[in-house]
Specification:
Order of helices and strands: HHH
Structural class: mainly alpha
Radius of gyration: 28 Å
Number of helices: 3
Largest sheet: none
Strand content: under 5%
Length: 83
């Protein structure tokens, strides 16, 4: 009987606490740090030369949308916009 009183709870009294909030924040921080570490490690990967040629990654021409590579400068006269 005493055990049933100790284990019984009122659903209106149960609320999320600071411990749960802290755990969620800690999981978020850990996820961010792991993601950042993974990106650092993936940037270090060197692709074999044969595979680079097959994918076209060995070309010296700039590719749009690739960070660190700029496109050739455009002359203002080549711009099709009017105004």
């Amino acid at each position: 009987m005493i055990a049933s009183l100790l284990l019984a709870y009122n659903p209106n009294d149960v609320k999320p606490g600071w411990i749960a909030f802290g755990l969620v924040i800690a999981l978020g921080v850990a996820t961010y740090l792991l993601w950042r570490s993974m990106n650092t490690q993936l940037r270090k990967i060197q692709m074999p030369p044969k595979q680079r040629r097959a994918t076209g990654l060995d070309s010296d021409r700039p590719r749009p949308g690739v960070p660190g590579q700029t496109e050739e400068p455009r002359h203002p006269a080549d711009d099709d916009r009017t105004g």
